[in-house]
From TrEMBL:
Native source organism of the sequence: Glossina morsitans morsitans
Gene Ontology MF terms: intracellularly calcium-gated chloride channel activity; volume-sensitive chloride channel activity
Keyword tags: Cell membrane, Chloride, Chloride channel, Glycoprotein, Ion channel, Ion transport, Membrane, Transmembrane, Transmembrane helix, Transport
Membrane topology: Multi-pass membrane protein
Name of the protein: Protein tweety homolog
Cellular compartment(s): Cell membrane
Function: Probable chloride channel.
Primary location class: membrane
InterPro entries assigned to the protein according to its UniProt record, in alphabetical order: Tweety (IPR006990)
Residue stretches spanning the membrane: 39-62, 83-100
Amino acid sequence: MEQPSILVRILHSIPHVNYTFCRVNDTFNPDSDVYLESLGILASIPAGLLILSLFGLLLYLLTRCCDRKPRKPSAQRCQSCSLVIITLMTCASIGLGLYGNDDFHNGLLQAFSSGKQVEGLVLSLKRQEFSYPPPKFVGVLS
């Protein structure tokens, strides 16, 4: 059996919590409301980080809008470096998301093809079972 990738191991090591931040059972169970709630909370973390970064950008733009003083070149250099770092981090997170999406898609395709193989095997076994007549036993007491 193929070992899971490091990304899968990292994501599965994240603890599942409910809305009161109490740890819940993290065994895969899509029928459980508590499990689905914990997945919703995990999925909302990137949205919260996005809102926080947009709020920081809003504050920055508000301060730049009202500031009329000329800037030193060193301040612009620091600003440029921070923008480059944020851009690289954003590109890396998009790339990681695309990699995870592709990995998930390939796993689903493999699961579906395995399911079709199992279905074909079961159907061939059913055909073999019905193609042979049951054996006739010759009675000892005839």
